[in-house]
Amino acid sequence: MTIGFRAYMVTATVVIGALSLSAFAKASQKTRFGEIDVERINIVEPNGTLRMVLSGRERSQGPMFKGKPFGYPGGTRAGIIFFNDEGTEDGGLTWSGKTDKDGKYSAVGHLSFDQYNQDQIVTLQYAEENGVRQQGLRIEDRANVPIDQLVDQMAAVRKMA
Fold first, then answer.
1. Count of CB atoms within 10 A of residue 117's CB?
2. pTM of full prediction above 0.85
3. Is residue 6 predicted with pLDDT exceeding 80?
4. Which of 46, 85, 121, 123 could serve as a FRET partner for 113 with CA atoms 20 to 30 Å apart?
């Protein structure tokens, strides 16, 4: 082996080693963006538990109970959905507004907080459909039955003749 080849090998080994170490090193600084475009952002705990989803309508999260989807699929509501420590939906801020091809319109602004293991219990909402408006603060009284059981019971009732 020539001295030049040995020098090349040592240099290449040092460079590859440094690049490998830097690839696996934890970043010490936050990444900063001036502007980003995304369809969905998931905020998760270190163990993977979903805590918040910020999304457009098509990428929105459907209802979750203890980390498992139930009820209806996602893709129905743009906004921010909150989840408790157990991965159950816990409320959210959603909105929509559109005019269809016939000129009919609808709009909704909705902020809700859910009862533990249940559905919304405090809601601040504006809803309008073609000039017919509802708005206000609503306080619900929910059953002490976990929402997944309630949804299953309602589905059984719908199947009855």
1. 19
2. no
3. no
4. 46
